[in-house]
Amino acid sequence: MKVFGDFEFDENLMQLRRGGLAVPINGQCLDLLALLLDRPGQLVTREEIKRSLWPDSNVDFEHSLDVLVNRLRQALGDNRKSARYILTVPKKGYRFVEPVSFSPDNQDHSTTINWTRSFARYASVAVLAALMAILFAHTRYQKFVPAQGVVPAASSR
Question: What was the pLDDT predicted at 128?
Answer without folding.
Answer: 82
